[in-house]
Amino acid sequence: MKTAFITGTTSGIGKATAQILASNYRLILCGRRADKLVELQKELEEITEIYPLVFDVRNKVEVFDAVNSLPEKWKAIDVLVNNAGNAHGLSSFQEADLNDLEAMIDINVKGLIYVTKAVLPYMLKQNGGHIVNLSSIAGKETYANGAVYCASKAAVESISKGLRLDLLHSGIKVTNIAPGAVETEFSVVRFKGDKQRASKVYEGYEPLIAQDIAQAIAYAVNQPEYVQIADVTIFPKAQGNGTTFVKKI
Ligand code: 8X3
């Protein structure tokens, strides 16, 4: 059975991806919150073999130590899903808190680079594998009050394209997934726990749910070996581009 390594599995898209891939992969579940990881481990252990790995993608040493600490059989990683990422704040560049801006670069860009650099040597040893990066429509279109979040996701888009080229002769495939509006803890985190403001983002139309994106990830990684799904953008039906929605209220 193949092994998938998924970051950010304690909630949202990462958790849903683990739940879907559990049917045909052994899973390395990564996250910062050990208690949440244990919960998911208990749930999925009934279906497949699980190895939980607690680390913060922002901490370079922690990332490399965690990946290198994997028992030998778990180091044969076939699929890496770089899902960990979030948004902090939604305000103009001049008003944004510098700590928030830095956090988005540290998690969404540097964290993805650390994890990929740590896992890739094991994939290269096997002459094959698949990296799935979670970008966003925000990586393709910049919106007001989101300069640095959008920049962080534009970086993910570029890294996906560059990795695909650099790994062309290695047998490793790269998929970039760009979701639009998905109702998860994303907006609650963005608005620092303000659930009312967060739920307004998804009011008046049917947003995507985490499982919709997880299905796309499963579709990409379960293709025949010669098929490389390069880039997928997924919107709810009510979304026309990054910022245009039909809302019923
Ligand atoms: C999440 C989608 O458009 O709310 O990355 O930023 S968006």
TrEMBL record:
InterPro entries according to UniProt: NAD(P)-bd_dom_sf, Sc_DH/Rdtase_CS, SDR_fam
Pfam families linked to this entry: adh_short
Keyword check for Plastid: no
Keywords associated with the record: Oxidoreductase
Keyword hit for Membrane: no
GO molecular function: oxidoreductase activity, acting on the CH-OH group of donors, NAD or NADP as acceptor
Family named by the database record: Belongs to the short-chain dehydrogenases/reductases (SDR) family.
PANTHER family found in the cross-reference section: ALCOHOL DEHYDROGENASE
Protein name per its UniProtKB record: NADP-dependent 3-hydroxy acid dehydrogenase YdfG
Gene source species: Myroides indicus
